[in-house]
Amino acid sequence: MSIGTLSETDKDHPRHYLRDQGFADYTPEDHATWATLARRQRDVLRGRICDSFLEGLDALGISDEGIPDFRVMNARLREATGWEVVAVPGLVPDITFFTLLAERKFPAGYWIRKPEQIDYIEEPDIFHDVFGHVPLIMQQVYADYLEAYGKAGLEAARHGTLHRLARLYWYTVEFGLARTEQGLRIVGAGIASSPSETVFSLESESPNRVGFDLGRVMRTNYRIDDFQETYFVLDSPDSWPVLDLEELIPLWRELDLENDLAPGDLLESDVILHRGDGSYHAAKRDAA
Ligand code: HBI
Ligand code: FE
Prior knowledge:
Order of helices and strands: HHHEHEHHHEEHHEHEHEH
Bound molecules: 7,8-dihydrobiopterin, fe (iii) ion
Largest sheet: 5 strands, mixed
Number of strands: 7
CATH superfamily: Aromatic amino acid hydroxylase
CATH class: Mainly Alpha
Number of domains: 1
Helix content: 40-55%
Number of helices: 12
CATH topology: Phenylalanine Hydroxylase
């Protein structure tokens, strides 16, 4: 398969996944669901999210009133960082996802969860994708990281190391924390769109909080079904990893000689900011 240059006829070509947002088709109930989620999240994020996230929300005009119109948001995003949000029906294949990011296009689900699914959905909807992910894309350093991530993903597909890129995304873009002068702050979208994980990630005694290390993260399995057992912490909200292929390819080779790590494992070489007591996941195991 030729990757990076997906042909128009390839089934993974982004054109098979792109939709119109259909802004006029949202119902009053859909907008009300957004409002409920956005108000609750803004409230719990205060003092817990990095400042640039809140600045991004405001600069994009993402409000608590109702679902944002991609046309309005994209005018602001293009001007700030040259990115745009494109509407997709749900998860897209990895290659499609990387291709879009490499073109500075962020795929976002355009549907919104039903009121009865307010706290749990299996696939990302517009609230997770837009409220959680898009605010930081207003920041140049983050916008560049995501583009580099897409390009590295296309390269990883050639090297059979997609799982390493998935781990990196998970532990940074979705579940990252960062140090600030005011203490730890959330930078990950998976946390920022979940009220319970917003509190758990920062305040629970249970999870490990470990200084970010690129190779370490790419060795570490993650949980998709529950809160994380370990959160990785960037040195600052601007300290997104530099993804240089000249360094990544040899790093992947080195990592292939080492064993993978379980989500809760700690190493001698880790910079441990908090050694978790594991109580949350232990209680769940006992209950099962
Ligand atoms: N598709 N729409 C969408 N959103 C994602 O976050 C996403 C995806 N496809 C694949 C994917 N993420 C992950 O496998 C990446 O970590 C590679
Ligand atoms: Fe996400």
